[in-house]
């Protein structure tokens, strides 16, 4: 003969289940809110193959500080550290995450972007802004920069600039302009060699344009991004009277054709 279960026992069991669920949700929330900043540092180093590193990371993934090092790779011999520290703030939103990066050495105002997950990847939309970086940090990215060892100033401005990662493919939108001023290299005694501008225009078929603003080393060229790689064709030459001072550099950065050096990438 079947027996009826005790209502009070059922109520106690349900109460215990809700208590366990509450503990699990609380632990999950605490885990998400207080995940240490060093986890972000580890993930960023892995994603960038060691080229971008956060050192002495403190705080959480949502609010933290760290030093920034550009390296030629995991265990790379060439590493460049930015002066001061980076402070970041991440805020979850219904469609992703809003981020603010405070980099006193290089940006007068916080650099802000929004990260939005997409079915096949991730979209990063940057707020319009300007920043200034030492050209020496490029040496931390390995060849050919660690051979050229550039010096000078890099001024970056962005207007409606967005990057969308669709699996292995990268799509670009908006515009980014990089003004490289008073650039010099360890391969030439001529200091500075010149000032240059690189303009990236996003869209269905993003383009890159390199022009010389002024200087003894003349650089010009254009390229096109196909979603996976950059195809660039350009040339370098020396201003009249500067051929001897720039001859060694011209031999290295491209294929010599008389007084010109032909530069081809991709």
From TrEMBL:
Pfam families reported for this sequence: T2SSN (PF01203)
Transmembrane segments: 17-35
Family annotation (InterPro entries): T2SS_protein-GspN
Protein's cellular compartments: Cell inner membrane
Swiss-Prot/TrEMBL keywords: Cell inner membrane, Cell membrane, Membrane, Protein transport, Transmembrane, Transmembrane helix, Transport
Major subcellular site: membrane
Record's keyword annotation contains Protein transport: yes
Similarity field: Belongs to the GSP N family.
Name the record gives this protein: Type II secretion system protein N
Naturally occurring in which organism (per UniProt): Variovorax soli
Lineage, uppermost ranks: Bacteria, Pseudomonadati, Pseudomonadota, Betaproteobacteria, Burkholderiales
């Amino acid at each position: 003969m079947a027996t009826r279960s005790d209502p009070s026992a059922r109520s106690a069991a349900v109460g215990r289940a809700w208590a366990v669920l509450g503990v699990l949700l609380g632990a999950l929330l605490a885990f998400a809110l207080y995940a240490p900043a060093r986890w972000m540092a580890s993930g960023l180093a892995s994603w960038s193959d060691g080229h971008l590193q956060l050192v002495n990371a403190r705080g959480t993934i949502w609010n933290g500080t760290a030093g920034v090092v550009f390296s030629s790779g995991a265990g790379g011999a060439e590493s460049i550290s930015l002066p001061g520290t980076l402070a970041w703030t991440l805020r979850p939103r219904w469609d992703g995450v809003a981020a603010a990066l405070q980099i006193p050495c290089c940006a007068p105002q916080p650099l802000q972007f929004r990260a939005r997950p997409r079915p096949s990847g991730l979209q990063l939309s940057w707020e319009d802004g300007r920043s200034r970086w030492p050209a020496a940090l490029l040496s931390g990215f390995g060849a050919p920069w660690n051979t050229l060892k550039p010096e000078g100033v890099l001024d970056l401005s962005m207007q409606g600039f967005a990057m969308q990662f669709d699996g292995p493919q990268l799509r670009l939108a908006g515009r980014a302009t990089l003004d490289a001023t008073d650039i010099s290299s360890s391969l030439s005694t001529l200091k500075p060699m010149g000032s240059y501008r690189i303009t990236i225009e996003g869209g269905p078929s993003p383009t890159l344009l390199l022009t010389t603003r002024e200087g003894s080393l003349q650089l010009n060229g254009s390229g096109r991004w196909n979603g996976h790689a950059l195809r660039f064709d350009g040339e370098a030459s020396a201003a009249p009277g500067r051929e001897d001072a720039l001859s060694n550099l011209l031999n290295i950065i491209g294929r010599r054709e008389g007084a010109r050096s032909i530069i081809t990438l991709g």
